[in-house]
């Protein structure tokens, strides 16, 4: 119990004093995750809008596959990206393996289905309300998509924050494609696993506090933006 208490005290001190190693790892985590989030949103939002406004033969199948991919095991994603980026893989010549770029690619693959599925649910309901109006105005497909994306911006931001929460806590795929290299690809989750194995519980707990803080901040933002609290009632 004393060891645990000492570790908590040291971890709190590292956070308060902004330990350089802790800050470096945190900033790298945010850089990788935010970059992946922006790329994923540029892919997921148009796909979700297109599935809402356009009817085609395999639409239901595409939606079902998209929803199924939400549960795609991250380690499998990491393995696939590793094989593609390895020296013997088709993209090995790019030399991206064990770099932040490889980590971003893995995170994008993981969170695109999640963001697209959440966004599609909101856009589908909004399209049901705007369908007759936009059809009567003879709006083109591009205009319909832009109108939906703009009016659903709050819901889309909530979907993006959900993707951020999923990406920032990812460890399996990131460990495989990033290699957890010091001063290069080490992020919060992989650093926590490493420092725990080393027995440096103070730094591991400090990193854990930062990760928990980010997760709580994201959930509070989702709660705020989703307006789940109405007139003082939950």
UniProtKB/TrEMBL annotation:
GO terms for biological process: transmembrane transport. Keywords: Membrane, Transmembrane, Transmembrane helix. The keyword Transmembrane applies. It is found in: Cell membrane. PROSITE patterns: ABC_TM1 (PS50928). NCBIfam families: ABC_perm1. InterPro entries: ABC_perm_TupB-like, MetI-like, MetI-like_sf. This is CysW_1 protein. The lineage of its organism: Bacteria, Pseudomonadati, Pseudomonadota, Alphaproteobacteria, Rhodobacterales. It is a multi-pass membrane protein. PANTHER family: PERMEASE COMPONENT OF TUNGSTATE ABC TRANSPORTER (PTHR43632:SF1). The keyword Glycoprotein does not apply. It comes from Jannaschia aquimarina. Its main location: membrane. The chain crosses the membrane at residues 30-51, 63-85, 91-116, 155-181, 201-222. GO terms for cellular component: plasma membrane.
